Every structure is written in structure tokens, then in C-alpha cells.
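User: C-alpha cells for this one?
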Amino acid sequence: MDAILFDCDGVLVDSEPITMRVLSAMLTERGWDIGIDECMRRFVGVTVRSHRALIEARTGQPLTDEWMERFYARRNAELQAHLTPIEGALEAAHAAHAVTGGRIACASGADRHKVEMQLARVGLSRLFGGAVFSGQEMAASKPAPDVYLAAAQHVGVPPARCLVVEDSAAGVQAGVAAGAVVWGYCPPGADGAPLLAAGATRLLTHMGQLSGLLADR
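Assistant:
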């Protein structure tokens, strides 16, 4: 592979439990008594807005821009206070940068402010530079391939020569639809079957494995 494209949440940063804790609390306050585990199952890898109809049906209230702004504010405050990198992710990103001659990118389904804030929080901003892409700025977000196609174009590598690293089925589907090779990150205790079913060709149980695999190329 000539370029490596990383998802952000759950691959580079351990943000998903923090985000889902905030979302669970705010949906519960709104009338949908949803636990963190169910939030993880329903919302990881997709946008909150993509489940507008479900949220409105369960809460009996419209999903307004004002509510979303409050969610973003609470989420971002918690991330700023508590975010940490996925174990082994910093080493993996630096190894990918070295092996590809800097042809790496971060392609996320999250909003740009969140992605850039998180990369800065864990010390990865300089490594990725301007190669940060948000699915929310594309015509369609994951599982559509748009964000990975944009990232591949930016680094100047055909998608078929790109490796995508993802932790959600929707993200794997996006990478596969773009024409890339996709490896799934599935830490111990997580179920890798949905990633394989979506088209991942390898599962990583620790992000540090990526550094070793790249070194053995």
C-alpha cells in the first residue's frame, strides 16, 4: 500500500465511550431511556442526525439544531477533559507516516471541529497536517465512500493502493466502496464479525500491531 487512511474515533482516539456517555445522558433527559451499550450499538460509526427519525420517535420531540449544538458543546467539553489516544495509535500513525513518505490522512464521519480538536489533544495535528477529512462535509457520509475518495485524492494515491484502518462496520463499508484495502481494529472483547462481514481483510487487536506489520513490509 502506498498510503494509509485512518478513521479517527475508536482508531486513533478513545473517544467513543466519552461521546456515547454524553449522548446517552442527553437522550435520557429528552425521554428516551437509552443506556451506553445501546448507544454504542446504534450510533458508533454513524452520525446522530442520520438517526433523526428514530430519535424523534423515541423522544417524541424534534431533533433541533439547538439540541445538536448543546450536544456538541457537552461532548467537546468532556473530550477536552478526558480524551486519550487508543493504545498503540500514536506509534502506528508515526510508523505509517514514515513508511509512506507522509502519505497519510484522517478520514472521519465526525464534524471537522471535533476531529481536529481530538488530533490536537493527543498530539497528532502536526503529523496529519491538512490531511483531515469530515464525512459531514461530503455529499454523503459513511458508509458512503466519499470521505475516503477525498482523502485518497488529497494524498495522490489511487484508492486501490490505499490501506484504510477502521473500527466500525459502516466505516469498513465506506473503505471497501472506495476501492481500498481495509483492516479492522477490534480490541479484545469486541466482536470482529461485523467488520469481517463488511469487508475487512484483517483484524488488528492492538493498534501497535500496525507498526510491526508496516515494519515487515
